[in-house]
Amino acid sequence: YLNAKDSGQDGTSTPLVGASSGLSASYEENNVFPYGSPQVVALSDGRMMAFWIGDNGGSSSANRTQLMCAVRSTDGAWGNAQAVCADGKADFLPCVCADGNKCYVVWRKATETYPEDITVTGMASKLKLVMSIFDGTSFSDLKTVVDDGLYPQFPSLDAHSGNAVVSWVENSDNEPYMATGTNSLYICNVSNGTISSRETLSGNLGYVSSIAADASDSSVCLSRDNDGDPTTTGDSDIYRISSSGETNLTADAVDDSNLKNIGGVLYWSKGGELYSCSGGAVSDTGAICGNAGAYRVMAFNNTTTVLTKISDGLKSELYTSSKTNDTWSTPVALT
Q1: In whole angstroms, what is the distance from residue 14 CA to residue 278 CA?
Q2: Cβ distance 139 to 107 under 8 Å?
Q3: Helix (H) and strand (E) counts in the chain
Q4: Which uninterrupted H or E stretch holds 111?
C-alpha cells in the first residue's frame, strides 16, 4: 500500500510500504509515485513479487511513470527494484496474477514519448495494452495485447493451469468516462506465451464500472449499470459474459462494484460488505469492505486476507481482516 498524507495530494513523492501480513519481512521504498497502484502476488515456490508504478526522475514530467518490480526470495529477503521495461515511455496501472511459478503482468503503455503539453484526450489515443511474462527467472520481451488507437479501459487479467486471459473495454468515441459512444468488451487468450487475436464478447455493453476476467472458462464478469445512468443508485448488477452468452449473478436494489478475481473466486463490494462467488454460489463473506468500496484480497499459505480503506471526510485509514476456519477476524487498523 501507499502510506501518504491525503493520498499524496500535496504533490510530493511518498513511501511505498509493503505489509508483511505475518511473514518474515516487508518491503519499503521511499520517493515513489504517489498513485503507484502497488500489487503483490505469491509464486508457488514461496517467492513473492511486488509491482508498482515508480517515478523515473530521468524522464520528462509526462513520461516519468515506470513499472517497477521487486522479488522476495524464499528466505524472506527482498531484492533490488528493477524496471520491467525501461524504454522511456510512460507506464500506467498494472494488472498482475500468478500461476505456479509464472507471473503475468499487463499494463497500459504510451505508444510514443509524450510532449509536455499532452491532454487527457491525446493521451487516451496514444496508449496500448501490453504484457510481459515472468517465467520464474526473468521477464519476457514486451508483447502487445492491443494497439488500435482506442483507450483500453478496465484491463483485467487471470491465469489458470498454464493458460491466461486478458480482457478490457473500449469506447467507440474514445471517451474515457464513457459519456458518449458505445462500449465493447474484448478478450484474448494467452497460451505458451502467444497472445491470440481478440474476440468480441459484446459490441454494445452499456455502462460498466469494473470487470474481472476468468481464465478457467474464458469468461468475463462485469458490474453494469442497468439504466445506463451512472448518477442513479441501486441499479448496478453483476453479469457473466462468454462466447456462449450472458447470465445474471445478482439482481437486487443494492449496487455491486469493484469486481476482482482472486484465485478463481470472484469478489465484489456491496453495501459496505465483501461478497464472493465460487462455483456459482453467491455469498456475503462477512468481511467489511470499507465505506469507499476500495479493497484488496490476498491469498497466501491457505489464509485469505482483506485490506480495505475506511474514509472519514478527507482522512482515510487502511484496515485488515483475515479469514480462519470460515470466520473473519475483527478489522485491525494498519495505519
Answers
A1: 37
A2: no
A3: 1, 28
A4: none
pTM value is 0.89
DSSP 207-270: EEEEEEEETTTTEEEEEEETTS-TTS-S-EEEEEEETTEEEES--SSS-EEEEEEETTEEEEEE
Task: Give dist(CA 297, CA 276) in Å, integer.
Answer: 11
As beta bridge partners, residue 160 has 163
Q: Express each pLDDT in 63-80 by its tens digit.
A: 999 999 999 999 989 999
> Is the pLDDT score of 12 beyond 50?
no
Side-chain-side CA neighbours of 1 within 13 Å: the count stands at: 23
Amino acid at 59: S
- Residue pair 234/253 in contact (Cβ under 8 Å)? The answer is yes
Q: Say how many C-beta atoms besides its own lie within 10 A of residue 64's C-beta.
A: 17
Cell numbers 491532454 label which residue?
119
| Measured distance CA(99)–CA(164) in Å, rounded | 9
Contact 297, 260 (CB under 8 A): yes
Distance between CA atoms of 93 and 108, rounded to whole angstroms?
A: 7
pLDDT at 169: 98
**CA 151 – CA 173 distance, rounded (Å):** 10
3-state secondary structure of 121: helix
